[in-house]
Protein backbone atom coordinates (compact mmCIF):
# COMPACT_ATOMS: atom_id res chain seq x y z
CA UNK A 1 0.00 0.00 0.00
CA UNK A 2 2.87 2.39 0.83
CA UNK A 3 4.42 1.75 -2.57
CA UNK A 4 1.11 2.58 -4.31
CA UNK A 5 0.55 5.71 -2.21
CA UNK A 6 4.10 6.88 -2.95
CA UNK A 7 3.58 6.44 -6.69
CA UNK A 8 0.30 8.39 -6.55
CA UNK A 9 1.98 11.22 -4.64
CA UNK A 10 4.86 11.23 -7.12
CA UNK A 11 2.44 11.45 -10.07
CA UNK A 12 0.63 14.37 -8.41
CA UNK A 13 3.95 16.12 -7.74
CA UNK A 14 4.88 15.86 -11.42
CA UNK A 15 1.44 17.11 -12.44
CA UNK A 16 1.54 20.23 -10.27
CA UNK A 17 5.17 20.93 -11.17
CA UNK A 18 4.22 20.89 -14.86
CA UNK A 19 1.06 22.94 -14.24
CA UNK A 20 2.97 25.78 -12.56
CA UNK A 21 4.85 27.09 -15.64
CA UNK A 22 1.87 26.32 -17.87
CA UNK A 23 -0.29 28.74 -15.88
CA UNK A 24 2.31 31.50 -16.04
CA UNK A 25 3.57 31.17 -19.60
CA UNK A 26 0.65 29.53 -21.45
CA UNK A 27 -2.60 30.31 -19.65
CA UNK A 28 -1.77 33.87 -18.57
CA UNK A 29 -1.23 35.31 -22.09
CA UNK A 30 -4.46 33.67 -23.25
CA UNK A 31 -6.68 34.50 -20.28
CA UNK A 32 -5.50 37.97 -19.22
CA UNK A 33 -7.12 40.15 -21.86
CA UNK A 34 -9.09 43.34 -22.20
CA UNK A 35 -12.74 42.41 -22.96
CA UNK A 36 -13.81 43.36 -26.48
CA UNK A 37 -17.13 44.75 -25.19
CA UNK A 38 -15.71 46.89 -22.38
CA UNK A 39 -17.26 50.30 -21.76
CA UNK A 40 -15.79 52.91 -19.48
CA UNK A 41 -16.05 56.62 -18.91
CA UNK A 42 -13.99 59.15 -17.02
CA UNK A 43 -14.65 62.71 -15.90
CA UNK A 44 -11.78 65.16 -15.50
CA UNK A 45 -11.90 68.77 -14.36
CA UNK A 46 -9.70 71.83 -14.67
CA UNK A 47 -10.66 74.31 -11.96
CA UNK A 48 -9.83 78.03 -12.21
CA UNK A 49 -8.92 77.55 -15.86
CA UNK A 50 -8.44 80.01 -18.70
CA UNK A 51 -10.79 79.62 -21.67
CA UNK A 52 -11.23 81.54 -24.90
CA UNK A 53 -14.55 83.32 -25.46
CA UNK A 54 -15.05 82.83 -29.20
CA UNK A 55 -17.65 85.61 -29.24
CA UNK A 56 -15.16 88.29 -28.21
CA UNK A 57 -11.96 86.35 -28.98
CA UNK A 58 -10.73 87.20 -25.49
CA UNK A 59 -9.32 84.74 -22.94
CA UNK A 60 -11.10 84.77 -19.58
CA UNK A 61 -10.88 83.00 -16.25
CA UNK A 62 -13.62 80.42 -15.61
CA UNK A 63 -14.50 78.39 -12.54
CA UNK A 64 -14.23 75.00 -14.20
CA UNK A 65 -13.74 73.19 -17.49
CA UNK A 66 -15.01 69.60 -17.64
CA UNK A 67 -13.66 66.85 -19.90
CA UNK A 68 -15.71 63.68 -20.31
CA UNK A 69 -13.84 60.77 -21.89
CA UNK A 70 -15.65 57.61 -22.99
CA UNK A 71 -14.23 54.38 -24.40
CA UNK A 72 -16.67 51.88 -25.89
CA UNK A 73 -15.67 48.46 -27.18
CA UNK A 74 -16.73 47.81 -30.77
CA UNK A 75 -17.27 44.03 -30.87
CA UNK A 76 -18.19 43.83 -34.56
CA UNK A 77 -15.02 45.63 -35.63
CA UNK A 78 -12.95 43.51 -33.25
CA UNK A 79 -14.25 40.31 -34.82
CA UNK A 80 -13.60 41.64 -38.32
CA UNK A 81 -10.01 42.69 -37.61
CA UNK A 82 -9.22 39.52 -35.64
CA UNK A 83 -9.84 37.38 -38.73
CA UNK A 84 -7.13 39.21 -40.65
CA UNK A 85 -4.73 39.81 -37.74
CA UNK A 86 -4.84 36.25 -36.40
CA UNK A 87 -4.90 37.38 -32.75
CA UNK A 88 -7.29 38.80 -30.16
CA UNK A 89 -7.95 42.44 -30.96
CA UNK A 90 -9.85 45.15 -29.11
CA UNK A 91 -11.36 48.19 -30.85
CA UNK A 92 -12.18 51.18 -28.69
CA UNK A 93 -14.34 53.98 -30.06
CA UNK A 94 -13.49 56.96 -27.90
CA UNK A 95 -14.84 60.46 -27.49
CA UNK A 96 -13.32 63.37 -25.61
CA UNK A 97 -16.00 65.98 -24.92
CA UNK A 98 -14.96 69.32 -23.40
CA UNK A 99 -17.49 71.76 -21.97
CA UNK A 100 -17.26 75.12 -20.23
CA UNK A 101 -18.84 76.13 -16.90
CA UNK A 102 -22.08 77.02 -18.69
CA UNK A 103 -22.37 73.48 -20.07
CA UNK A 104 -21.72 74.55 -23.65
CA UNK A 105 -19.47 72.45 -25.85
CA UNK A 106 -15.89 73.69 -26.25
CA UNK A 107 -14.67 70.78 -28.38
CA UNK A 108 -15.31 67.13 -29.08
CA UNK A 109 -12.81 64.78 -30.66
CA UNK A 110 -13.53 61.17 -31.62
CA UNK A 111 -10.93 58.44 -31.77
CA UNK A 112 -10.67 54.80 -32.81
CA UNK A 113 -7.95 52.87 -31.01
CA UNK A 114 -7.14 49.31 -32.16
CA UNK A 115 -4.80 47.18 -30.04
CA UNK A 116 -3.79 43.67 -28.98
CA UNK A 117 -6.05 42.43 -26.17
CA UNK A 118 -3.15 41.09 -24.07
CA UNK A 119 -0.04 43.16 -24.88
CA UNK A 120 -1.82 46.49 -25.61
CA UNK A 121 0.40 46.95 -28.66
CA UNK A 122 -1.32 48.86 -31.48
CA UNK A 123 -2.81 46.85 -34.33
CA UNK A 124 -2.86 48.73 -37.62
CA UNK A 125 -6.10 48.32 -39.53
CA UNK A 126 -8.57 50.33 -41.56
CA UNK A 127 -10.46 52.70 -39.29
CA UNK A 128 -7.58 53.62 -36.97
CA UNK A 129 -8.14 57.36 -36.62
CA UNK A 130 -8.23 60.53 -34.52
CA UNK A 131 -11.02 63.04 -35.22
CA UNK A 132 -11.66 61.34 -38.55
CA UNK A 133 -8.03 61.57 -39.68
CA UNK A 134 -6.29 58.24 -40.37
CA UNK A 135 -3.33 57.62 -38.05
CA UNK A 136 -0.77 54.87 -37.54
CA UNK A 137 -0.02 54.65 -33.84
CA UNK A 138 3.26 53.62 -32.33
CA UNK A 139 3.35 52.78 -28.64
CA UNK A 140 0.60 52.59 -26.06
CA UNK A 141 -2.37 54.82 -25.27
CA UNK A 142 -4.81 54.82 -22.33
CA UNK A 143 -3.41 51.62 -20.78
CA UNK A 144 -0.02 50.09 -20.04
CA UNK A 145 0.64 46.35 -20.61
CA UNK A 146 0.03 43.76 -17.93
CA UNK A 147 3.08 43.45 -15.64
CA UNK A 148 4.31 46.95 -16.45
CA UNK A 149 8.08 47.34 -16.20
CA UNK A 150 10.16 50.10 -14.61
CA UNK A 151 11.16 51.69 -17.91
CA UNK A 152 10.13 54.29 -20.46
CA UNK A 153 7.35 53.50 -22.95
CA UNK A 154 6.34 55.06 -26.24
CA UNK A 155 3.06 56.91 -25.71
CA UNK A 156 0.77 58.18 -28.46
CA UNK A 157 -0.44 61.78 -28.25
CA UNK A 158 -3.79 62.29 -29.98
CA UNK A 159 -3.36 66.05 -30.39
CA UNK A 160 -0.07 65.90 -32.31
CA UNK A 161 -0.79 62.45 -33.84
CA UNK A 162 2.77 61.42 -32.88
CA UNK A 163 4.42 59.16 -30.30
CA UNK A 164 7.15 60.08 -27.83
CA UNK A 165 8.66 58.47 -24.71
CA UNK A 166 6.75 58.69 -21.46
CA UNK A 167 9.32 58.37 -18.71
CA UNK A 168 9.29 56.16 -15.63
CA UNK A 169 9.93 58.45 -12.65
CA UNK A 170 9.83 56.04 -9.72
CA UNK A 171 7.60 53.90 -7.53
CA UNK A 172 5.04 55.53 -5.25
CA UNK A 173 2.14 54.66 -2.96
CA UNK A 174 -1.31 55.75 -4.10
CA UNK A 175 -4.22 55.01 -1.77
CA UNK A 176 -2.84 51.68 -0.62
CA UNK A 177 -1.53 50.58 -4.01
CA UNK A 178 2.08 50.41 -5.17
CA UNK A 179 2.15 52.33 -8.44
CA UNK A 180 4.68 53.40 -11.06
CA UNK A 181 4.73 57.11 -11.83
CA UNK A 182 5.17 58.14 -15.49
CA UNK A 183 5.56 61.62 -16.96
CA UNK A 184 5.70 63.02 -20.48
CA UNK A 185 6.20 66.59 -21.68
CA UNK A 186 4.90 67.49 -25.12
CA UNK A 187 6.63 70.72 -26.27
CA UNK A 188 4.75 73.49 -28.07
CA UNK A 189 3.56 71.92 -31.31
CA UNK A 190 1.34 73.16 -34.12
CA UNK A 191 -1.78 70.96 -34.21
CA UNK A 192 -4.96 70.72 -36.25
CA UNK A 193 -8.21 72.42 -35.31
CA UNK A 194 -10.99 70.04 -34.16
CA UNK A 195 -13.43 69.10 -36.91
CA UNK A 196 -16.31 70.32 -34.70
CA UNK A 197 -15.81 73.94 -33.62
CA UNK A 198 -17.65 75.62 -30.69
CA UNK A 199 -19.14 78.36 -32.90
CA UNK A 200 -21.92 77.41 -35.33
CA UNK A 201 -20.94 77.96 -38.93
CA UNK A 202 -17.21 78.16 -38.17
CA UNK A 203 -15.11 75.35 -39.62
CA UNK A 204 -11.42 74.46 -39.35
CA UNK A 205 -11.04 75.45 -43.00
CA UNK A 206 -12.53 78.90 -42.44
CA UNK A 207 -10.26 79.53 -39.45
CA UNK A 208 -7.21 78.30 -41.36
CA UNK A 209 -8.15 80.72 -44.14
CA UNK A 210 -7.52 83.64 -41.77
CA UNK A 211 -3.95 82.49 -41.25
CA UNK A 212 -4.54 81.66 -37.56
CA UNK A 213 -2.92 78.47 -36.27
CA UNK A 214 -3.46 76.34 -33.16
CA UNK A 215 -0.59 75.34 -30.85
CA UNK A 216 -0.53 72.97 -27.90
CA UNK A 217 1.73 71.78 -25.07
CA UNK A 218 1.11 69.56 -22.06
CA UNK A 219 2.77 67.82 -19.14
CA UNK A 220 1.12 64.41 -18.88
CA UNK A 221 1.29 62.37 -15.65
CA UNK A 222 0.06 58.87 -14.86
CA UNK A 223 0.10 56.70 -11.73
CA UNK A 224 0.00 53.12 -13.06
CA UNK A 225 -0.70 49.94 -11.09
CA UNK A 226 2.00 47.64 -12.54
CA UNK A 227 0.27 44.22 -12.26
CA UNK A 228 -2.78 45.22 -14.33
CA UNK A 229 -1.13 48.08 -16.24
CA UNK A 230 -4.12 50.28 -15.46
CA UNK A 231 -3.70 53.97 -14.58
CA UNK A 232 -5.38 54.63 -11.23
CA UNK A 233 -4.90 58.37 -11.57
CA UNK A 234 -3.89 60.83 -14.27
CA UNK A 235 -3.56 64.55 -14.81
CA UNK A 236 -2.31 67.07 -17.35
CA UNK A 237 -1.01 70.63 -17.22
CA UNK A 238 -2.54 71.59 -20.53
CA UNK A 239 -2.15 74.74 -22.64
CA UNK A 240 -3.51 75.73 -26.05
CA UNK A 241 -2.96 78.95 -28.01
CA UNK A 242 -4.17 80.52 -31.24
CA UNK A 243 -1.38 82.33 -33.04
CA UNK A 244 -1.22 84.91 -35.82
CA UNK A 245 -3.66 85.61 -38.62
CA UNK A 246 -6.41 88.18 -39.01
CA UNK A 247 -8.72 86.39 -36.58
CA UNK A 248 -6.76 87.74 -33.61
CA UNK A 249 -7.01 91.40 -34.66
CA UNK A 250 -3.31 92.03 -34.84
CA UNK A 251 -2.38 90.13 -31.67
CA UNK A 252 0.44 87.61 -31.88
CA UNK A 253 -1.35 85.00 -29.81
CA UNK A 254 -4.25 84.35 -27.44
CA UNK A 255 -4.80 81.56 -24.93
CA UNK A 256 -7.50 79.15 -26.07
CA UNK A 257 -7.32 76.94 -22.98
CA UNK A 258 -5.01 76.62 -20.00
CA UNK A 259 -5.63 74.53 -16.93
CA UNK A 260 -4.51 71.76 -14.61
CA UNK A 261 -6.72 68.84 -15.61
CA UNK A 262 -7.35 66.23 -12.89
CA UNK A 263 -9.57 63.18 -12.45
CA UNK A 264 -12.71 63.83 -10.43
CA UNK A 265 -12.68 62.32 -6.94
CA UNK A 266 -15.58 59.86 -7.42
CA UNK A 267 -13.90 58.42 -10.52
CA UNK A 268 -10.61 58.04 -8.64
CA UNK A 269 -12.36 55.97 -5.95
CA UNK A 270 -14.15 53.81 -8.53
CA UNK A 271 -10.95 53.23 -10.53
CA UNK A 272 -8.88 52.26 -7.47
CA UNK A 273 -11.53 49.75 -6.33
CA UNK A 274 -11.79 48.22 -9.81
CA UNK A 275 -8.02 47.92 -10.21
CA UNK A 276 -7.62 46.28 -6.79
CA UNK A 277 -10.17 43.63 -7.80
CA UNK A 278 -8.59 42.93 -11.19
CA UNK A 279 -5.10 42.93 -9.66
CA UNK A 280 -5.99 39.87 -7.57
CA UNK A 281 -7.16 37.97 -10.67
CA UNK A 282 -3.94 38.72 -12.55
CA UNK A 283 -1.80 37.73 -9.55
CA UNK A 284 -3.61 34.38 -9.39
CA UNK A 285 -2.33 33.55 -12.88
CA UNK A 286 1.14 35.07 -12.55
CA UNK A 287 2.13 34.47 -8.94
CA UNK A 288 -0.23 32.92 -6.43
CA UNK A 289 -1.21 29.75 -8.33
CA UNK A 290 2.14 29.08 -10.12
CA UNK A 291 4.19 29.42 -6.93
CA UNK A 292 1.53 27.64 -4.90
CA UNK A 293 1.47 24.68 -7.27
CA UNK A 294 5.29 24.57 -7.25
CA UNK A 295 5.34 24.47 -3.44
CA UNK A 296 2.63 21.79 -3.44
CA UNK A 297 4.65 19.72 -5.93
CA UNK A 298 7.70 19.92 -3.66
CA UNK A 299 5.63 18.84 -0.66
CA UNK A 300 4.09 15.90 -2.53
CA UNK A 301 7.50 14.81 -3.77
CA UNK A 302 8.88 14.89 -0.22
CA UNK A 303 5.94 12.79 1.05
CA UNK A 304 6.43 10.32 -1.77
CA UNK A 305 10.13 9.90 -1.00
CA UNK A 306 9.38 9.59 2.73
CA UNK A 307 6.87 6.80 2.13
CA UNK A 308 9.31 5.03 -0.19
CA UNK A 309 12.10 5.28 2.36
CA UNK A 310 9.88 4.08 5.19
CA UNK A 311 8.77 1.07 3.16
CA UNK A 312 12.41 0.01 2.67
CA UNK A 313 13.55 0.66 6.27
CA UNK A 314 15.20 -2.48 7.90
CA UNK A 315 14.28 -3.73 11.36
CA UNK A 316 10.58 -4.14 10.83
CA UNK A 317 8.71 -7.08 12.41
CA UNK A 318 9.90 -10.45 11.10
CA UNK A 319 7.44 -12.42 9.02
CA UNK A 320 5.71 -15.32 10.79
CA UNK A 321 7.40 -18.73 10.11
CA UNK A 322 5.60 -20.98 7.71
CA UNK A 323 3.75 -23.86 9.36
CA UNK A 324 5.31 -27.34 9.00
CA UNK A 325 3.58 -29.36 6.32
CA UNK A 326 1.31 -32.14 7.47
CA UNK A 327 2.70 -35.66 6.79
CA UNK A 328 1.17 -37.45 3.86
CA UNK A 329 -0.44 -40.71 4.84
CA UNK A 330 -1.60 -43.45 2.56
Q: If you had to describe this structure to a student in words, what would you say it looks like?
A:
By secondary structure, this protein is α+β, with helices and mostly antiparallel strands. It is built from 4 helices and 12 strands, in the order αββαβββββββαβββα. It has a 12-stranded antiparallel β-sheet. The model has no long low-confidence stretch (mean pLDDT 91).
Oligomer: single chain
Task: Characterize the biggest β-sheet.
Answer: 12 strands, antiparallel
End-to-end Cα distance, whole Å, is 44 Å
The beta-strand count equals 12
Q: How do the SSEs run, as a string of H and E? A: HEEHEEEEEEEHEEEH
**Tertiary shape:** elongated
Mean pLDDT over all positions:
91
Spatial extent as radius of gyration: 31 Å
Helix content: 25-40%
Q: What is the spatial order of strands in the main beta sheet?
A: 6-5-4-3-2-1-12-11-10-9-8-7
Structural class: alpha+beta
Separate helix tally: 4
Proportion in β-strands: 35-45%
Low-confidence stretches: none
